[in-house]
Here is the input.
Amino acid sequence: MKPCKRIEIVVEEALTRRLEELLEAVGAPGYTMLPRASGNGDRGVRRGDDPTGTFTNCVFIIACDDEATITAIIEGVRPLLQRSGGICLVSDAMWVRH
Amino acid sequence: MKPCKRIEIVVEEALTRRLEELLEAVGAPGYTMLPRASGNGDRGVRRGDDPTGTFTNCVFIIACDDEATITAIIEGVRPLLQRSGGICLVSDAMWVRH
Amino acid sequence: MKPCKRIEIVVEEALTRRLEELLEAVGAPGYTMLPRASGNGDRGVRRGDDPTGTFTNCVFIIACDDEATITAIIEGVRPLLQRSGGICLVSDAMWVRH
Amino acid sequence: MESLFLSNLTAPPLLFFFLGALAAFARSDLEIPTQIGKFLSLYLLMAIGFKGGLALSASPLDASVLRDLGVALCLAVIVPIYAFCIIKRFTPAADAAAIAATYGSISAVTFVTGTSYLDSLGVPWSGHLVAAMALMESPAIIIGIVLYQTANREDADAVGLNWRAIGREACLNGSVVLITGALIIGYVASPSAAAQITPFTADLFVGMLCLFLLDMGIVAARRLQDLRKVGGQAQQSPGILLLFAIALPLVNATITAFVAVWLGLPEGDALLLTLLGASASYIAVPAAMRLALPQANPSVYLSMSLAATFPFNLLIGIPLYHQFTLWLAAT
Amino acid sequence: MESLFLSNLTAPPLLFFFLGALAAFARSDLEIPTQIGKFLSLYLLMAIGFKGGLALSASPLDASVLRDLGVALCLAVIVPIYAFCIIKRFTPAADAAAIAATYGSISAVTFVTGTSYLDSLGVPWSGHLVAAMALMESPAIIIGIVLYQTANREDADAVGLNWRAIGREACLNGSVVLITGALIIGYVASPSAAAQITPFTADLFVGMLCLFLLDMGIVAARRLQDLRKVGGQAQQSPGILLLFAIALPLVNATITAFVAVWLGLPEGDALLLTLLGASASYIAVPAAMRLALPQANPSVYLSMSLAATFPFNLLIGIPLYHQFTLWLAAT
Amino acid sequence: MESLFLSNLTAPPLLFFFLGALAAFARSDLEIPTQIGKFLSLYLLMAIGFKGGLALSASPLDASVLRDLGVALCLAVIVPIYAFCIIKRFTPAADAAAIAATYGSISAVTFVTGTSYLDSLGVPWSGHLVAAMALMESPAIIIGIVLYQTANREDADAVGLNWRAIGREACLNGSVVLITGALIIGYVASPSAAAQITPFTADLFVGMLCLFLLDMGIVAARRLQDLRKVGGQAQQSPGILLLFAIALPLVNATITAFVAVWLGLPEGDALLLTLLGASASYIAVPAAMRLALPQANPSVYLSMSLAATFPFNLLIGIPLYHQFTLWLAAT
Ligand SMILES: Nc1ncnc2c1ncn2[C@@H]1O[C@H](COP(=O)(O)O)[C@@H](O)[C@H]1O
Ligand SMILES: Nc1ncnc2c1ncn2[C@@H]1O[C@H](COP(=O)(O)O)[C@@H](O)[C@H]1O
Ligand SMILES: Nc1ncnc2c1ncn2[C@@H]1O[C@H](COP(=O)(O)O)[C@@H](O)[C@H]1O
Ligand code: NA
Ligand code: NA
Ligand code: NA
Here is the structure.
């Protein structure tokens, strides 16, 4: 086990591909994406029920143990969140190496 | 980035609306809800496969940095968990402000 | 509230039953499973879109406050991850007792 | 009589139910995705509602229709009351109330399978039975909660029941709204408009029912397995619960059959009303009970209804009640 | 004229839309699972594309078809331009551009409901209108973004728009691809191959439309409720937005109807072209706008289109535009 | 011969497959929701099973049927063995075993597309070929694992294979259970019961196949793109893998065609048996291999089967094998 950061990002589903491209660009070691989340925040309710996906969220989970990559992910996601809403949480975790 | 609590609540899907109303009532800054989870606990298996939603769970994620609101969420969710089962986990996280 | 570990495991959906059996065998107090996740890692993209479920992930969340069980879960899941890929993260959390 | 049983057991919808149950017992990974299960169930509710509305618009709404609806409503009120009185001797009050509500309400899919059984025998049935079904779905929920409150005044007060919310959830649950809505739309639809929709609601009906019963077979068998596993958690032995899950529909069917024959209902209608009495809810009522009576154990009432009563009614109940109402009517 | 309105309002698809809206307003838990909603929408796009292709292959592709397509394309370019000029006086430029794009594009389900309205009246319509629909879906997206950029040069530069990506997303969004593809497949399909598919694309059409409109009723009503709640967030009063959501389709319909009658289109085609002008996108354009113009508020443009214009066109617009084009053609 | 190819390539199901692949290559956001994809696949399995059962009940079960089934079973055992011997020279043993199992098993959708091809040409085929398909799905899984174990005794011992679990997962995988169950239900269904279900299983068949192949086109094209990206990970060049993905079905088809003609099968049956030999599994076998042989790389065997062999068989294989069996039978 080695220490890492667990980054959790909630954005609307329309931005999935953008975020995936960002993560690939900054060299994130991997990610897991949970689709079809609903939510509520500053920009009102997102019911996750409409056919456009505009009011549907998704949750990205990224484990990362490289300082520089962590910063790159956070700085890369910030303008996305500013324009389109969402949140980004960072916490400590232990990564079970296999 | 500023410190906050990450509250994670698992309840059965039938209670979604109740929990949403609670979060609105106590003034939670927002939440994200992942539907259609399955699970296992003291009350047996919940396969997430039946047409009633009784044996299906959902996961709420709430980032909150206000002491009073955190307490209100926890105290509000406790009776719900007592009657209907589920869990509530609280952990530390950093909230990337945008 | 009492301290516990929050274990988060990402594996491909085909292994769901194996992991459930493992958790039951080591006496995990419960778990929550989020199906139909997509992801990316050392073994390439898993789009979560194919009819086989081979390229679809799922996320297990386990709250556990018993040292021995935590170790058993981690040691049990390690060979699974070695052979089939995935990740396992462990972090600290407070468990709201109800 | 044997031929009725046999022809029922070899009806494709039933066989697909068996197939699903077998697959689940053998631990096959055969599975219907959840949203597809809900889609099939929405389809069946919409189709039976629309069918019923069409049938209703073909025959004039007369006094006997209103009488039948009134009787159906009475049954939905009376059944949970006596069921509660019997069951509460064996289980905690909350469980007894939830079981009573479950068996006082109805199962739309059991009804739908009954109509497909009658269609395959060429026995006609009336559209207003669909209205009766919609009417019988909700009252048991309210009755169940009132019964619990009467029996457990203190606990109920502590919970602070929100009666307006309960009433709304009972009367506006999705299946009641969809059946009723589709019934009205079928009733007012012009013949040419109806003709455009029937390929969807009528021609696909049995096929979709087969697929849904395949799903139900899987779900019911799994629930039965889970029930055995967590049997120790319930405060009753699984045996007692199983007994009730067979006895209650038989008692309810007998009473309803007498009422149906006393009303002089024609063959098809008598069977369908009896089936409504005998069937137990596994969607609307459990959903409402989780909110209003969370202290009742869903593994008890939902498993009884879904894993025992539902298959029993489907496999044995339908031809049995048919035979019984025919025999009653003849004597 | 009244009879057209009445017969439209009692058409089953419309009634199912009402049913969904009523259920959502009453806070019933009736719900169509998301993936089922997408399936129904894919089905409708595929079926209307295939139908259009079949119709197109039956009548020769002549100059008048090309003329109609050209005119449709022009409409898709002009409508967002004048819409932007009007709206930007009342809303921020980003919102104005997104609204303009939304109303310059089309709603396939409104079109599809229009064809089902015509079919129920026995009025024929031409397959190339489906091609016109496919052509009219995307241009407004590009126009909207160009308009925004022209009005807000600085902000637009800051964002660094990726025009290739925008162009691709506009022209290759799923609905355009599916309609166009199905249209071509329908066009080239041999009669015997087409006959194997029509039970799916034609016979089920109205039933599937009913189920989809049930879903849309639920979604539209919920969005309307949310709009009231978060009204304060938008920089305009909901009243103004609602006004635009009714006024824009009326203006667009009037202009398109004049064009249609001036082109001498037959009754059915004139209505469908007018409907394309009057309808607003609620899938393709919002999806593209979220990526290209994230600074526009989706609660504004999506809610206007989905919760106000869509029901308005369905319930009142279709017979109104029909009547209007008939009257125009007669004078 | 050219006309067979051309008429195959312009068959709507194939065109929808092209449409999906094109959309994915162009990076359109066209997408079939996952649960809908599973629903369509369940539908096709149920429908083809039911159809096969009906056909089987129409013609008496005689010795030649049993002979054909026996031969099919032998093929399912022999094909993976020689495939393994060839492939293991080029790839690690685990990958070779998984590829052998994949190509020894069958693809139900390829079979189903073959039946729709025959139907459109008016060539009859026998219901017991569906039974042959069900029989041929699982054996290759067991053979593949045995082969790997024989070749890699040490590693296999270390893993501690649970043979009971493997056997159960092989024989009880969802598609085998559903096809077999539906086959039996179709076989025992009374003609009147069957008539109620055929609007669902027969009339919708080609339309649903179109929608499913649209999905498969998207999935196959995406997998092909991913394959290029992660090509470096596999221990073989994508070129070799692609070569195998075309060569294996050709070899298997040739052998099976000889057997089919030697058995004297009629035209339609000969094509379908050849197609079973030529096709490779992309659901049942990969699912089983992930559990039993996790050390094999799914990007290799699943991508070969899904992204290369499946489209090859659909587009070129079906008319090619048809032509070949006709030519063989004539000589
Ligand atoms: N405090 C929060 N906790 C959890 N999720 C949040 C929170 N705030 C926002 N979100 C999620 O982010 C989405 C967009 O948020 P916003 O931009 O604030 O409207 C919401 O729909 C939620 O899913
Ligand atoms: N220790 C645990 N870790 C994660 N999830 C749990 C745990 N215990 C219970 N749950 C979740 O909460 C639901 C209800 O739990 P219970 O009330 O214990 O039956 C379960 O179905 C799980 O989804
Ligand atoms: N660094 C990471 N952060 C989050 N999820 C990951 C990470 N690495 C791998 N995963 C997940 O684990 C799955 C298998 O990973 P791998 O075995 O590395 O291919 C991926 O598809 C992801 O869903
Ligand atoms: Na009942
Ligand atoms: Na328009
Ligand atoms: Na094969």
Observations:
- Chain D is about 80% helix and 0% strand.
- The pocket of adenosine monophosphate (ligand 2) is lined by residues B 10, 39-43, 46, 57, 85-87; C 29-32, 61-63 (CB under 6 Å).
- Chain D touches chain B through 26 residues (CB under 8 Å).
